[in-house]
Write a structure and sequence with these properties.
alpha+beta, Arc Repressor Mutant, subunit A, Alpha-Beta Plaits, five-stranded antiparallel β-sheet, 12 helices
């Protein structure tokens, strides 16, 4: 084993366990103890914080530094990390989905062919207990993440909400996760406009390596939220909620409606097909609100209020109140 390979092996051993004796390291590396001492000094010179103690119970351990050193994984460790990151990314776990996907993309590039083939076999043999419409290809996510980060154009076949298939040529911008779904925000070159695509509806993805200069888009997450909360619905409603945006956000998920602060109030926009559904949904929030538009929805709410008042006021007639008091 040459000196460079031995240094990497030594660094990997120090990362694998909290402490090693000099004799243990020498045995693992199949060298003499003085060679271990010399290699430790070389790693220290390279910036690694390796602490050592002398005596019968002495040894070496990797100290914490201001920067994370390159991590070296054994085969089984690399497989375990890749599987866990793939599950986290595919499930769009709130709060870590972007980091998990980025780490998975980096790890996938570094895996040797033998481990990559093993991981591919494991993924193909794995069945998740979720709805098929929510399944996302981890390989597709990795390719799209790399295309976004490196400014690479992509082509793919896309199935629309109506089930129509079409070829798309895009400039990938960002991946956005909500619940268990991933969305790609990209500039559609044929339509010359920004579009959002559900990743689980993308097939035949190809990234040929053609670069582009990224275009500016202020808020890709809001674009996705607006698209999934109002698109494909018969009506769009605007509601003024008499509560702070922080309180309303605790009750309304981003995929249900788009929130905007209006002083002490909150403007809510959402899509609907059924006025009765929206009425029951808004009442169920337990917050005071006013429907601004559409006018048909305002009329529906007024009619519902009159019907509820008439029904409940009848039980509160003067004679019944007097009987109840005696």
């Amino acid at each position: 084993m040459d000196s460079a390979a031995r240094l990497l092996r030594l660094l990997g051993l120090l990362q694998r366990r909290s402490a090693w004796s000099g004799a243990e390291l020498a045995e693992r590396l199949e060298v003499e103890a003085r060679t271990v001492r010399r290699d430790v000094e070389r790693l220290r010179y390279l910036g690694y914080q390796i602490e050592g103690t002398s005596g019968a119970g002495g040894g070496y351990h990797l100290g914490g530094g201001t920067e994370v050193p390159p991590l070296l994984f054994e085969d089984d460790e690399a497989m375990a990390v890749a599987v866990v990151l793939g599950a986290s990314a595919g499930a769009a776990v709130p709060g870590i989905e972007r980091s998990a996907l980025t780490a998975l993309a980096k790890l996938d590039r570094l895996l040797p062919p033998r481990l990559r083939s093993q991981l591919a076999a494991l993924r193909s043999a794995t069945v998740a207990l979720v709805s098929p419409t929510e399944m996302v290809s981890t390989e597709t996510l990795i390719q799209l993440a790399q295309a976004c980060d490196n400014g690479l154009r992509a082509t793919f076949t896309y199935r629309t909400h109506q089930g129509q298939l079409g070829e798309r040529r895009v400039e990938p911008h960002r991946l956005v996760a909500t619940d268990r779904r991933w969305y790609l925000v990209a500039y559609d070159l044929e339509r010359e406009d920004w579009r959002t695509f559900r990743v689980d509806r993308i097939t035949s993805l190809h990234v040929p390596g053609h670069t582009f200069v990224p275009r500016h888009l202020a808020d890709p997450a809001r674009m996705v939220a607006e698209g999934i909360s109002t698109a494909h619905y018969s009506h769009r409603a605007v509601v003024s909620v008499k509560a702070s945006i922080e309180d309303v956000a605790k009750l309304i998920a981003p995929h249900v409606g788009v929130l905007e602060r209006e002083g002490d109030l909150t403007r809510l926009e959402l899509g609907m097909d059924d006025f009765d559904w929206l009425a029951s949904y808004l009442i169920g929030l337990g917050l005071e609100f006013e429907v601004i538009e559409p006018r048909e929805m305002r009329a529906q709410m007024a009619m519902l209020g009159k019907r509820l008042l008439a029904t409940h006021a009848a039980r509160d007639a003067p004679g019944e109140r007097q009987a109840a008091a005696t």
